[in-house]
Fold this protein.
Amino acid sequence: MRHTRAAAPPLAIKPRYLSNVEIMLSIAPYLWPKGNLAARARVVTAVAFMFLAKAAAVYVPILYGRTVDTLTTPGNLVIALPLALILGYGIARIGAAGFGEIRDALFASVSQRAVRLVALKTYRHLHRVSLRFHLDRQTGGLSRVIDRGTLGMGSVLRLAVFNVVPTAVELLLVTGIIWHMFDWRYAAVTLTAVLVYVAFTSILAGRRGRYRRTLNETDNDASSKALDSLLNYETVKYFGNEAHEAARYDKALARYERAAVRVQVSLNMLNLGQAGIIAIGLTIIMLMAAQSMAEGAMTIGSFVLINTYLIQLYQPLNFLGMVYMTIKQGLVDMEQMFALLNVAAEVEDKPGAPALVASGGEVRFENVRFGYRPDREILHGVSFTIPAGKRLAIVGPTGSGKSTISRLLFRFYDITGGRVLIDGEDIRDVTQDSVRAAIGVVPQDTVLFNDTIRYNIGYGKPSASQDKIEQAARLAQVHDFVIRLPDGYDTMVGERGLKLSGGEKQRVAIARTILKDPRILILDEATSALDTGTEQDIQGAFRAAMKDRTTLTIAHRLSTVIDADEIIVLHDGRIEERGTHAALLARDGLYARMWTMQADEAPVPALTE
């Protein structure tokens, strides 16, 4: 059967940034979750209390003005009327505050759940995107993006939904009331001042958004450099490069400092302009009201009423400036997080793909072609079969494509030509999860979680009991070592397992893989980082892991693969030779030369005095 070559993979995966409107539309489904009637009911009730709070707030100045007029009317001896107005004024103020607090309390669970779901979705998506994407990114920067994005989303939900909208409602109500009770000129000045305020804020906020974006980028850079340096603490010490690392970090911090100063100065200019607009608007209104009083067209109560309205309106407007800026900053912070969600997964399951049923575990590569870049192919038509329960080893010079084969089998990437099959099933026709569930990997660089030995072994099957964990540890020949430790299986292994030696880490990794109990095992240069003595010590653990499993061994040291059922010699992405150890030596080709070179390597003699 002829297989057409698939499209070449991209050189790099770049996220597409969303506009503010697209971000807000992306948030909407989380605020109005499909099928969650309780959450929708809370939103509706919160909106109802928002309108009740604004209605009460708008009525407060009216009661205040009438009370003043009643108390200042000459000869008014009716005490009950101003008393009722004062009580009504107090009740209205309590209602405005109380309804607002109830509104916020009802909406809190909705907004926090939305933040949680978006953060979880982003986290899951980062595990779903391709290995290529993660190789191009720095982990520290990604974590900062998620942290800032979730905080920004919380700010936007808290402020936009129940601060901006209520203020707009209050503005319309107040403008209508002022027009009705006084004159269109008062309403026009009020509305004009507000519109100028909003326009000024929008223009400067747009510039500040660019500054904030630069601030985020420099923050990511500084965080990534610090994390990278600390994770490689030993390497820094080996080369005495503490000053070099500090200089790199300081350079990143200096860029952050300049960006932070620009953000702060632009905020000061924004606040100054907003205060000026509010002051001018208030002054004009008061001059108009004072003239009306001098002409006898306005009472003291009306003067107090209109000024109370304006102060009450401009107070949230003054706050609105900060709210607007916080929302803009929140949207900028969310921009990168939603851009991550927009990154397409390079490797996708076919719609309705079934799960792989790995019965025997036979692995077959048929004329496989692949390249990380479209202009540089790594594998050129590689074909081989590993019968179920057998062991195949792949050896060859550095850069020949050995580790690429394991990544393709694990489906970190999709091939560009040919087929990869497990028990006769093309791995592109079944789900990725089922493929990876059938495969266990012991890599060259075993990285452990900064947790206990129990957790790291149990990671192979999180639901496993302590007995199963200990059984796997015994097979991996690490149990006796663990129980001698003061904290036993509760011993913390440190960042990336640095508290354990290379051999101990490798045994923990083998135990983890044994606990997973896969049908197929990949040993990817699993002993290349170990000394010869340690390598020989853990051979028993490797034999336990390989028992009754189809095994693909990728090795640099030929001494570790001499008992393989078949050995493939890879060179420049092609199979140069294949056969058993004895047959390849008899052939006297590339494998034989590699064997001779490694056999001639003698240990350096110890120095003597």
